[in-house]
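## retry 2 of 3
previous attempt timed out at serialization; input unchanged, resubmitting
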Amino acid sequence: MFDKLKQINELRKIQKKISSMETVVEEDGILVKVNGEMKILEIKISQENENIGLEELGKKIKKVLNKALDKVKIEMAKNINPFV
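## retry succeeded, writing output
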């Protein structure tokens, strides 16, 4: 029973650590910040993108956002790895 309580406590610590993680990816004049809960914290678009069309801008945002989410997934896997 105490082993399970230890595991639950350890999982809570990992969850807290993951929740506090933040990943930033900047590419093509777009900055995206995502946390360990995969919530978008910030999106910044530089002025270099002011003359492109909305469709192209959408593609750029999607690309950078996917990179940020992939980066968070990798970091999460590194934190969870001891239990796998």
